[in-house]
Specification:
The complex is a heterodimer of chains A (323) and B (103). By secondary structure, chain A is mainly alpha-helical. Chain A has one domain: Na+/H+ antiporter like fold (Up-down Bundle). Chain A is globular, with a radius of gyration of 19 Å. The longest helix of chain A has 30 residues. Chain A contains 15 helices and no strands. By secondary structure, chain B is an alpha+beta fold. Chain B has one domain: Alpha-Beta Plaits, CATH 3.30.70. In chain B, the strands form 2 sheets. Chain B has a 4-stranded antiparallel sheet with strand order 2-5-1-6, with helices on one face. In chain B, strands 3-4 form a two-stranded antiparallel sheet. In chain B, strand 3 and strand 4 form a beta hairpin. The longest helix of chain B has 12 residues. Chain B is elongated, with a radius of gyration of 15 Å. The two termini of chain B are 18 Å apart. Classes of the chains: A mainly alpha (323), B alpha+beta (103). At the A-B interface, helix 3, helix 11, helix 14 and helix 15 of A face strand 4 of B.
């Protein structure tokens, strides 16, 4: 299947069309909405399902040395990508050091929803990514925040603060605890455990993902509608170009590590995606002077839709090309 | 019915700061307060809504405290240390309470 066919198949899948429906409804100012509690419930289901299945896959295939190596590479990618993003932002936009560092932190960290969607696409394409990529996703969440704070501390305008409370909130945020916890449960209980709850976490998964992406489309569409003033051409170009730089870095690392095509695709997706759950919250505490509408609009309104529609098929094609 | 003067302090602050604010209030001896969800709004950084949000990075909460008038400065000093660099609103209004011994 060529890249164009892959992209078309992805664009016409129920999950992407659900996301498009959400964006269109928000842009058209429809009153369609998903209550906060329902959205949280859907995200809990998806994280539990993806973590559990990852753990069960590890129980079936066993661990190897690549896990530790991939974890380390993931941490390095998360720490280094913000430095590239920061340099790029200072060239293509007029953002000051603090806003640029805050945006950069988002691009080093990961979007767990993009990861869930990419895992679903990989499995639909017949790939079997390494189950422990779930742990890599968790490890890549926080290092980018430290890089951003270091970038700010090098400027004259002061530094961010990263106290023990914030550390705990970042490292033990609900998404990470659930993802890693369900991974461990899946690993401990293996195929037998999976068989017991398979009907709950496998069959409804795609349908729940559709509803969740409908919600993400609504949130992204509302963000886009309200933040047109923020999206200067330079920033828009960054929001579309940075995922490709991150994806390329993920591809190269995946090849060096000898990951399967599914694993390479997921590492590309993790490197290409931008956080919009953990890092925005951390930035509000550590860098309250940074403008949240810039980083939320870029992450949720530009990079997330790009990755979901065009990025994931591109990463899938690149991963298969390198196989 | 007899009423007593009090001060009602309402602090609208980012949800991520709620725990820090409550800690600061409790350290200042303010043990009575109510936390309310805030659905959405608009301010200097734009319009926002809690609809469909799954993270705490973009939401707000309202913390409401009612104290005796002589304690309001202490409360505001504690709250302001947390609120000052963040997005939010602090307002103080005169109130009347029925059971003065509870505040």
């Amino acid at each position: 299947m060529g890249l164009l066919d892959l992209a078309l198949a992805n664009l016409l899948s129920p999950v992407i069309l659900s996301f498009a429906l959400g964006v269109a409804a928000a842009l058209a100012r429809s009153d369609l909405s998903i209550p906060e509690a329902v959205a949280k419930g859907l995200s809990i289901y998806l994280l539990f399902a993806i973590g559990f299945k990852g753990g069960a896959a590890v129980a079936a295939s066993g661990l190897d040395g690549r896990l530790v190596a991939t974890l380390l590479v993931g941490v390095v990618l998360s720490a280094v990508l913000p430095l590239i993003a920061f340099a790029l932002l200072r060239v293509v936009s007029s953002l000051d050091r603090i806003d640029a560092a805050a945006v950069a932190a988002h691009y080093g960290s990961i979007s767990i929803v993009t990861f869930v969607a990419a895992t679903s696409v990989a499995q639909s394409a017949g790939l079997s990514p390494e189950g422990w990529m779930v742990a890599v996703a968790a490890a890549m969440e926080a290092p980018a925040i430290l890089s951003a704070l270091w970038l700010v501390s090098r400027g004259a305008s002061g530094s961010g603060k990263m106290d023990a409370d914030l550390w705990r909130e970042v490292v033990l945020n609900g998404s990470i605890v659930l993802l890693v916890g369900s991974f461990l449960i899946g690993w401990a209980t293996g195929a037998e455990g999976l068989a017991k709850i398979d009907g709950f976490i496998t069959v409804p998964f795609q349908g729940v993902l559709c509803l969740f992406l409908l919600d993400m489309g609504l949130v992204a569409g509302r963000g886009l509608r309200e933040a047109r003033a923020v999206l200067r051409p330079g920033l828009l170009g960054f929001g579309l170009g940075m995922p490709l730089i991150g994806g390329a870095a993920g591809w190269a690392c995946g090849q060096v590590l000898g990951l399967s095509p599914g694993g390479v695709m997921l590492l590309m997706t993790l490197s290409a995606s931008a956080s919009y759950i953990a890092v925005p919250a951390a930035m509000r505490v550590a860098l309250p002077q940074a403008n949240p509408s810039i980083y939320l609009t870029l992450s949720l309104g530009v990079t997330f839709p790009f990755n979901l529609t065009l990025g994931i098929p591109l990463y899938l094609a690149a991963a298969q090309l390198g196989a | 019915m007899e009423t007593h003067p009090a001060k009602r302090v309402e602090i609208i602050i980012e949800a991520i700061m709620e725990r820090r604010l409550r800690g600061a209030l409790e350290e200042a001896g303010v043990t009575g307060y109510t936390v309310l969800p805030v659905l959405g709004g608009s301010g200097r950084t734009g319009v926002w809504s809690r609809e469909g949000q799954i993270g705490r990075g973009s939401g707000m909460v309202a913390v409401v405290c009612i104290v005796r008038p002589e304690r309001v400065d202490e409360l505001l000093d504690a709250a302001f240390a947390v609120v000052e660099p963040q997005i939010g609103v602090v307002c103080v209004t005169d109130a009347q309470v029925l059971r003065a011994e509870r505040f």
